[in-house]
Write a structure and sequence with these properties.
single chain, alpha/beta, Rossmann fold, two-stranded parallel ribbon, 8 strands, globular, 6-stranded mixed β-sheet, 196 residues
């Protein structure tokens, strides 16, 4: 069964890594690791940390492909068991994913059975659109105003829930009001992993 695994933090958070190990007892498949939400200087250090954390969580480091814009075509010629999308600026992530054609590729891989793991911005990317992140991140990376995301689920998420209890509760209530009763919004705490 293909899983959509969403969290506020990724593999470097020990509790998150433990939950993913339980959800994915077989971690021997190929993984595409996407870290396009952070600026280039910061992204390199994040990706090194994540690959190290993935190895410690039992994923075979030699089977992890870190998505690099210079080798985008080669990365998208393979099939993957796991697609992991890291956090950062949600608008930058959406812009970059669409720019490199990863939106269609990720949907195709998910339809073929790849597990999607999205963290923070990567979790928002799995939703119908990234509207819930509009109050969190600077939107200067998207110039056309299209917030359409991967739509791997009809549900929405609210990442990092509980960092500011009073403010978060109000924001969640406002978000649910804005999206309407027909939509489910899942708050995801710091150590939580949501499986859809």
């Amino acid at each position: 069964m293909t899983m959509l695994i969403l969290g506020s933090h990724s593999f470097y958070y020990e509790k998150v890594a433990q939950q993913i190990q339980t959800l994915l007892p077989d971690r021997s498949g190929r993984m595409l690791l996407i870290g396009l939400a952070a600026d280039e200087d910061f992204a390199a250090s994040i990706l090194r940390r994540e690959v190290n954390s993935l190895g410690m969580a039992g994923f075979d480091r030699s089977r992890i492909t870190v998505f690099e814009p210079a080798s985008a075509e080669a990365a998208m010629q393979q099939d993957y068991s796991y697609i992991a999308v890291l956090g950062g600026n949600t608008f930058r992530l959406l812009h970059q994913v669409c720019k490199f054609g990863l939106d269609s590729f990720i949907r195709e891989q998910f339809a073929k059975g790849a597990h999607y793991m999205g963290f923070s911005a990567g979790a928002y990317l799995a939703c119908p659109d990234i509207f819930p992140a509009s109050g969190l991140d600077d939107s200067n990376e998207i110039t056309d105003g299209d917030l359409t995301a991967l739509h791997l689920t009809d549900d929405y998420v609210f990442c990092h829930y509980g960092e500011d209890d009073l403010h978060d509760a109000r924001r969640l209530q406002k978000l649910r009001y804005q999206l309407g009763d027909r939509v489910t919004v899942h708050p995801i705490g710091m150590d939580d992993v949501l499986v859809l």
